[in-house]
């Protein structure tokens, strides 16, 4: 067939030129696995799912527990849009030793080996929310030996928690608790007893006395020096691992070097929780002056029947929860309704880059039990810790949930050692991070192929000059004002335009721009003065 089709017409379909958003959120978790796990230590596992973490990393491992916290936060959110979770598993150091503690049960005032009163004791190991065993004591029950004795019942209840990184063995009323892992992390595992009555210096149910000790003796953690070599050019906005590994490998040698890099966006923040005394927590941030490190601090408790941290939780689980929440907040369209106050505007009910400027404080940590009255930090201590660079968590005002306080980094001084508050709050770091990424992505797209001239541009061709480039940067700024990251309005735009310097180097084909970049900050303090008067006339 001969077909004539004139005139020749071609209609090309071109994509819309839309702003480019930021990369999807990725969390990297580093922790210890058990030998029963099928994963290979030191390998980067990407997009790990909850349904295989027991098989991969060993049921009852530190790593399985941390990952469970992250995935439980995701499930609590109800969001179907979730961040990616990647994992590097570590094996225990061969020369390490496991930490142990004891719970000693003795009979007071006789040798009958029979309980004289009934009651219920709650034995908490590691995490009050997850590993809280309620053991009933009944009159006439054997105490330390014999069928159905109290000591065996407690050991059996602890061992029934198959995901708990601790095992228990009773020998005549001395229950030895042994961490499943070698290393120092086990030394901070909490042991807490509830439901007892104080009689003199003893804690009892009738004639049965209970006395725990701190976990101790754990030594030699895995070597982590080259752990992050397997990451390559992958970017992780959030990274978390136990504090006992130190932060040299993850922050000083890794994230700090990625805060500003050529031709890429690779910055991120490590969230690393520490359990210690008030004095030691206040001193800790001085060891790492970094905008890439956030350290939640938990108070170390050493009381008669409470040994460990306040709140009663694994420290790496606190880090995991905060990491999951941060990643959710910055995930486009993630459901945040359970992690924001009921009074917020509709735009803050979903995740996205706008949440970088939204306060972290008052965010609930649903997976953490509330802190007992009298064992947490005072208001003055919270202020001191926040100034020092420690993030504090605590009960809400009605005492029914644990919430975040100000979330801060350890950054305090510039490179010359001068006090510098720029990166004190994590929200500021987040705001600049997402803004820089937005600029980067859109500059890459808008100038994928372009000529550079010092003269006027010819609209027929793809060209730019200093004036046009300056206008493009101002447009990006205006875009970000729509996300509540930077001030909006003519005055703000005029300020940015006036203080934007663009220089062209024609020999190198290079544009250098310096832009003053005002940001939105969190409303952290409100002072209202009410003057007393006695008349309205």
Overall pLDDT score: 96
Unreliable runs:
none
Oligomer: single chain
**Number of E-type strands:** 23
Our count of domains comes out at 3
Helix content: 10-25%
What does this structure look like?
The protein has 537 residues and is of the alpha/beta class. The chain folds into three domains: 115 residues, Immunoglobulin-like (Sandwich), CATH 2.60.40; 193 residues, no CATH class; 88 residues, no CATH class. 22% of the residues lie in helices and 22% in strands. The strands form four sheets. Strands 1, 2, 3, 5, 6, 9, 13, 14, 15, 16, 17, 18 and 19 form a 13-stranded mixed β-sheet that branches. Helix 2 runs parallel beside helix 6.
How would you sum up this structure in a few lines?
By secondary structure, the protein is of the alpha/beta class. It contains 10 helices and 23 strands. Strands 1, 2, 3, 5, 6, 9, 13, 14, 15, 16, 17, 18 and 19 form a 13-stranded mixed sheet that branches. Strands 7-8-4-12-11-10 form a 6-stranded antiparallel sheet. Strands 20-21 form a two-stranded parallel ribbon.
Describe the protein's topology.
Blueprint: E1 26-32, E2 44-45, H1 53-57, H2 62-77, E3 84-90, E4 98-107, E5 119-125, E6 132-137, H3 150-159, E7 166-171, E8 174-182, E9 191-194, E10 197-199, E11 202-205, E12 208-212, E13 238-240, H4 248-258, E14 269-271, E15 274-276, H5 278-283, E16 293-303, E17 306-310, H6 315-329, H7 379-388, E18 390-395, E19 402-404, H8 426-446, E20 451-452, E21 463-464, H9 466-481, H10 490-498, E22 500-505, E23 510-515
Parallel strand pairs: 1-3, 1-13, 13-14, 14-16, 15-16, 16-18, 20-21
Antiparallel strand pairs: 2-3, 4-8, 4-12, 5-6, 5-9, 7-8, 9-17, 10-11, 11-12, 16-17, 18-19, 22-23
Helix pairs in contact: 2-6
